[in-house]
Amino acid sequence: MSRPNDRLITEVTGLLDSFQAAMAQLGDARRQRDALTAEASVERGRITVVVNASGSIVRTVFGEDIGDLSYGQIARATVQAAQQAAAEVRRKAEALFAPVQAARAQLPQLPDLFADLPRLQDEMTPPPRAPLTPPGERTPDPTATGFEDAVEYRPSRRGAFDR
């Protein structure tokens, strides 16, 4: 005769097995992601930038005819190549992690086992991507929260905060 908790024990055991398999798959994907690189060339191949999985520049190569460009053109083109390479390595990483995400979506969630528990993933929002434009060239975000009642610290003889 089966006990009332046998079904729950079987489900939790299956969940743990699935979780361990997903974690192994995630570890493999992370190791493969860490080896990713991407490269982009601009200015008719005069500037080539290679980035790692984090989007950090690991190599920059200038062609022999780089002297045809001004310093400003070289700087802008190098940034452009780095951004293109970073976008490519991001696409590669997303493709690499797609099967992991699909497997994760198939895992039962705790609320599936215990009806009253909230889904914590629904409460978490991903951080926004950092802008690619230099700070001086950014337009202010109209939806950003302002601090109208902020207090500016200005040391005074009294040692107090002044408005």
From TrEMBL:
TM segments? Answer: none
Domain of life, per UniProt, equals: Bacteria
InterPro entries (alphabetical): YbaB-like_sf (IPR036894), YbaB/EbfC (IPR004401)
Q: Which Pfam families match?
A: YbaB_DNA_bd
Region Disordered: list its residue ranges. Answer: 119-163
- Gene3D superfamilies on file: Nucleoid-associated protein YbaB-like domain
Write out the biased-composition intervals (Basic and acidic residues).
Answer: 151-163
Composition bias type Pro residues, residue spans: 125-134
SUPFAM superfamilies named among the record's database cross-references: YbaB-like
What name does this protein carry?
YbaB/EbfC family nucleoid-associated protein
